[in-house]
Amino acid sequence: MTTQLSALSIIIGATLVSGHAFADNQTQDKNPDVNNGLQDYTINRTIDDLSSEEKQAAYRASFGCFMGCHRPAKEEVPETISPKLAGLPAQYIYNQWSDMDGTRTSGLSVQMKEFVYLLPPKLMADVSILLSEREMKYSPDEAIVGGESWKHGKEIFDKSCKACHGEQAVSTNERFPSFKGQMPYYLFEQLKNYRDGTRTNRDAPMMTPFAKMYNEEDYKDIIAYVTGQELKQIERTEFITGIGMPAPENFVLPDSGQIQDFTDVKGEDSDYPGVQPKFTISESGLTTYDENTKLTWERDSSRIWMTAIEGKEYCAELNLDGYSDWRYPLIKELHTIADFGEFRPAIDTHAFLNMPRQSSGIWTFPVSNHPDHAWHIGFPDGHTMGQHTASTKLTRCVRADNGAAYHNLDLVDNGNGTVTEKVTNRMWQQNIDYNRRDWESSIQYCEALDYAGYNDWRLPNFKEMISIGDFNKVNPSIDEKFFPNTPSKFLFWTSTAKVGTEKQNFRPLPARKLKQPEEMYDLRGKAGGSLRWAVGYAVGAGYGLNEDIPYYARCIRNP
């Protein structure tokens, strides 16, 4: 918080909501959509009804989906769990998307919450229309087509599926999606979810009896017929869980790194500077020791992108500065070296080398809410996202003396409505008031809170909010014994803002923060955009979301 407004705008990438301002200004369509809110939206428009501005905004919003998880090309990892979206009916795409708000909870769908809350229904509809006009690529393997598995799959499909989904899954009924050319492993996962009753939204119950009629070998044959490819399942192994690992002795949670001001409201992240990061680089220049967390890091991340299994093997074989006990970082550990006052990359680039400014996801564990899905932290801005373990990310290994790790909590119920977490030495509001507020109102709520005999409460920063997550469980990913009735459908605001604005995704990038003149720290108003960090306890992930969205607040204080 500062007293003067600077017109300076910092260049950053975050294109998903760049059309937010005009996306709700619907053009005068002959057959307009019926917009009764997120869960009651009927698409009547076609691609011809979208203005050039609406198409541009929809393209920007869909670009992240395609580049991140839903790429349609054959060369995309065949065992991906994420579906192709091209060519699906617009209403079907929209319905499945909006159901991520809560109705769809199986598999990885919970990680789509960000994109439900981030975009208004009108823009979601525009994206759905745009995607529906594309063609789902069908890239059959000649060795599969016409083979025994393919023939058996056709027999089953024609008997049980063709009536709704059309010849070889090319549907002519918009209620039922086409899936000729769909990702094989995604189809396999969905058939199992239908069979087990874990996918229940919309028309899913209609699929359950059909899925139960057949076994998994039959599923593979159906997939061979409609995709022309052999199902390739993800190779599985045991990854680090963090369970039972002691906290590093004398651990100190470092500051988020945010020094910029985004609001006139007292209580934002920069108003409460914490213990500043302090890194020591070894004489060899190969490792970086964090004086706060007592973790030793590989200074230079892997120079090549690796699958999750390859990264695990890489760390196990690493020998640096006389240490051979390197491992994957746990998610809280990797967050400790993120700098939320920087971007592209959001990290100290002297202490940590080889961090690309754009594509810079680093593997971190434990696995997310699916055994074939791990976490990565994207260091353009420090966001958290799941990714299937057969995909490739960068690897940066870590170690600690005595097999320690920053992962497990040491919670104490103080018996007065507060909980103390002893590893980070923070006191928390145990029971929230269940009122959802926008970002600034959440800050004000904690600043004004007089609770359990204390009046120095504040809204936690991002690293603090992540710290009480339990990444070994989901829905909710928090210890309910100490934090009962924690909602998992909506998120919790942090005091940390996302550096930069929604529309800026291009060079030249400004200097690193400590080399900037002081006036560049003033990002109030349009200069700072509208994205603020929030954490959801469905899976524990953190997202940069629009500050006007009403979320919960759980306040914190330093004991």
Structural summary, described in words:
- It is a single chain.
- By secondary structure, the chain is α+β, with helices and mostly antiparallel strands.
- Among the domains are: 100 residues, Cytochrome Bc1 Complex, Chain D, domain 2 (Orthogonal Bundle), CATH 1.10.760; 80 residues, Cytochrome Bc1 Complex, Chain D, domain 2; 130 residues, Mannose-Binding Protein A, Chain A (Roll), CATH 3.10.100.
- A hairpin with a 4-residue loop joins β10 and β11.
- The longest helix is centred in the N-terminal third of the chain and has 17 residues.
- It is globular and about 65 Å long.
- The N terminus is likely disordered.
- Percent of residues in β-strands: 5-15%
Q: Give the number of DSSP strands.
A: 16
Share of helix, binned: 10-25%
**Number of separate helices:** 14
Described by the principal axes of the CA atoms, the overall outline is globular
End-to-end CA span? 24 Å
Task: Describe how the helices and strands are arranged.
Blueprint (H helix, E strand, L loop, with lengths): L19 H4 L10 E2 L5 E2 L9 H17 L21 H10 L13 H6 L2 H12 L15 H13 L1 H4 L18 H13 L7 H10 L2 H12 L51 E3 L5 E4 L5 E3 L9 H10 L13 H6 L24 E4 L8 E6 L4 E6 L9 E2 L11 E3 L4 E4 L4 E4 L9 H10 L13 H6 L23 E7 L33 E6 L5 E5 L9 E2 L2
Antiparallel strand pairs: 1-2, 3-4, 4-5, 5-9, 6-7, 7-8, 10-11, 11-12, 12-16, 13-14, 14-15
Helix pairs in contact: 2-5, 3-5, 6-10, 8-9, 8-10
